[in-house]
């Protein structure tokens, strides 16, 4: 009996393997629209809990992208994950977003948009308007060859600043960045004679934190709903001969409705950052991010300028590439 059972089991397994051949059910996405959703929709001023305005049900052409607590589309965030896209046929696409109200899911956003073949981002920014569509072309900018510890990444800045709820700002904003000149001494530093006696390539500069580049414009000034396109940002790595990362500082200066080239200051030119305000000429809107070399990232600038929460802040939902 025991040997009979073993024999029948082996026969069953072999038969199952033949009937259930494992295949890789994948196909090319040529001809399809590949999309990401970026939630920059305004949150009511001075709310107690911003999470109450997350979207727990997201539909694209009637297909659930998020449902219940699974992959919600939070405020100032994006779906799907980095370097991933939802696939849909080109043409008119409908987007529906639902918020949790009590025990019910209530439709809050219902807009249609025209999609083309290829990668594109859909920026949801106004409940009564279709999303801003941004296309993503591969190989639009060259990757810089990593030389020792010196390399770059790319940033795309979006101006979505509102003066107050319901009022888009008419200011054109100039995004700028500043990087440490050499946290580690590089081959370029050696060629330029910048390495002091007793130090060599790869050694840390003990005063690097105080040695910064000038402020550099990141693309042109942009108005509401506009973006700079992809711009190269210098990154001086903090780890010798590795992919590495480095701190990059950012600020915003005004080019319309204020003093050209000067950080916004008090009074009518006050820019509010979420949970903190500008207090002096040198403490206008500033921020910093850890930049990973060879990566591409969106920087969304949104919120209310009049001081009501949520105040102004940069959101970097995820690395784009």
The helix content is: under 10%
Count of folded domains: 2
The biggest beta sheet reads: 5 strands, mixed
Q: Which word captures the global form?
A: globular
- Average pLDDT across residues? 77
The helix/strand class is mainly beta
Query: What assembly state would you assign to the polypeptide chains in this entry?
Result: single chain
Order of helices and strands: HEEEEEEEEEEEEHEEEEEEEEE
Number of helices: 2
Instruction: Using the CA coordinates, give the radius of gyration.
Output: 25 Å
Cα distance spanning the termini: 61 Å
Fraction of residues in β-strands: 35-45%
Number of strand elements: 21
Question: Can you walk through the features of this model?
Answer:
The chain is mainly β. The protein has helices at residues 2-19, 187-191; strands at residues 33-39, 55-60, 63-67, 77-79, 86-88, 91-101, 104-115, 118-124, 132-136, 150-164, 167-168, 173-179, 216-217, 231-236, 245-254, 262-263, 272-273, 276-277, 286-292, 296-304, 313-315. Strands 1, 4, 5, 8 and 9 form a 5-stranded mixed beta sheet that branches. Strand 8 (118-124) and strand 9 form a beta hairpin.
Quick recap of the structure?
It contains two helices and 21 strands. The chain is mostly beta strands.
Core attributes:
321 residues, mainly beta, Immunoglobulin-like, five-stranded mixed beta sheet, 2 helices
SSE order and pairing:
Elements (H helix, E strand, L loop, with lengths): L1 H18 L13 E7 L15 E6 L2 E5 L9 E3 L6 E3 L2 E11 L2 E12 L2 E7 L7 E5 L13 E15 L2 E2 L4 E7 L7 H5 L24 E2 L13 E6 L8 E10 L7 E2 L8 E2 L2 E2 L8 E7 L3 E9 L8 E3 L6
Parallel strand pairs: 1-8, 10-20
Antiparallel strand pairs: 1-4, 1-5, 2-3, 2-6, 6-7, 8-9, 10-11, 10-14, 12-13, 12-15, 15-16, 15-19, 17-18, 20-21
């Amino acid at each position: 009996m025991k040997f009979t059972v073993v024999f029948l089991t082996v026969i069953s397994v072999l038969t199952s393997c033949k009937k259930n051949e494992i295949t890789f059910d994948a196909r090319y996405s040529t001809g399809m629209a590949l999309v990401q959703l970026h939630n920059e929709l305004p949150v009511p001023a001075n709310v107690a809990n911003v999470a109450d305005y997350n979207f727990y049900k997201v539909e694209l052409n009637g297909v659930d992208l998020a449902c219940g607590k699974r992959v919600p589309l939070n405020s100032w965030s994006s779906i799907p994950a980095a370097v991933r896209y939802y696939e849909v046929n080109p043409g008119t696409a409908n987007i529906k977003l639902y918020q949790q109200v009590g025990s019910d899911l209530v439709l809050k956003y219902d807009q249609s948009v025209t999609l083309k073949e290829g990668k594109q981002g859909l920026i949801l920014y106004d409940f009564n308007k279709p999303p801003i569509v941004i296309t993503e072309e591969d190989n639009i900018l060259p990757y810089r060859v990593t030389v020792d510890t010196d390399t770059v990444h790319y940033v795309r800045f979006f101006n979505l600043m509102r003066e107050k709820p319901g009022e888009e700002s008419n200011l054109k904003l100039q995004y700028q960045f500043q990087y440490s000149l050499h946290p580690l001494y590089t081959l370029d530093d050696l060629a330029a004679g910048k390495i002091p006696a007793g130090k060599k390539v790869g050694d840390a500069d003990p005063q690097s934190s105080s040695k910064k580049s000038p402020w550099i414009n990141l693309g042109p000034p942009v108005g509401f709903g506009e973006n700079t396109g992809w711009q190269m940002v210098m990154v001086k790595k903090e780890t010798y001969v590795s992919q590495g990362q480095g701190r990059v500082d950012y600020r915003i200066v005004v080019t319309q409705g204020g003093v050209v080239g000067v950080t916004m200051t008090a009074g009518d030119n006050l820019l509010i950052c979420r949970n903190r305000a500008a207090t002096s000429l040198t403490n206008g809107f500033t921020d910093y991010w850890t930049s990973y070399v060879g990566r591409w990232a969106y920087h969304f600038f949104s919120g209310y300028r009049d001081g009501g929460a949520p105040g102004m802040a940069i959101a970097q939902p995820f690395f784009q590439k």
